[in-house]
Amino acid sequence: MTDLLQTYPAAHPDPGVTRQVLSDAPELMVVSFSFEAGAEGKLHDHVHVQSTYIRAGRFRFTVGDDTFEVGPGDSFVIPSGARHGCVCLEPGELIDTFTPRRDDFL
């Protein structure tokens, strides 16, 4: 079992944002994003399908032409290629799952 456990360094992709890969395999990756209030996940897109779970805090998300607010316990899926981003309204944490793995995060 210990061969399966890996530790990944934290990264700071944007001011007030900390990214920590929790686990990965070629076809799947789980990542924690911690946000300070006011921090942004800048608008971007990627080929990966992304599932986002709000563990804590409040966020305003834009996905395509839709903008909505989410809080603890909410979750949604971002389709491949959809332009998306968020603004943190209250400090919090997102748990994102990507398929396939985001090799750019390793």
Automatic annotation (TrEMBL):
<dbReference type="Pfam" id="PF07883">
    <property type="entry name" value="Cupin_2"/>
</dbReference>
<dbReference type="InterPro" id="IPR052535">
    <property type="entry name" value="Bacilysin_H2HPP_isomerase"/>
</dbReference>
<feature type="domain" description="Cupin type-2">
    <location>
        <begin position="33"/>
        <end position="95"/>
    </location>
</feature>
<dbReference type="InterPro" id="IPR011051">
    <property type="entry name" value="RmlC_Cupin_sf"/>
</dbReference>
<dbReference type="InterPro" id="IPR014710">
    <property type="entry name" value="RmlC-like_jellyroll"/>
</dbReference>
<protein>
    <recommendedName>
        <fullName>Cupin type-2 domain-containing protein</fullName>
    </recommendedName>
</protein>
<dbReference type="InterPro" id="IPR025499">
    <property type="entry name" value="KdgF"/>
</dbReference>
<dbReference type="InterPro" id="IPR013096">
    <property type="entry name" value="Cupin_2"/>
</dbReference>
